[in-house]
Fold this protein.
Amino acid sequence: MQKLIKTFISNCPEDTIQFAKNFSTTIPFGSTILMIGDLGSGKTTFTKGFAAGLGFSDKVQSPTYP
């Protein structure tokens, strides 16, 4: 199994969403993504962009604030 660690630093939510949309089209099917961050660090924003990149159009909510 190949492990690949990458770091992306975003300066605004729009950059995070665009990065996640692009990333969703490049990651191999069945991959695992681990996100670690404090509250408000952008995990849900990333997930919204990733889901949008896969064509998901329903609402994505933070599991912390349902």
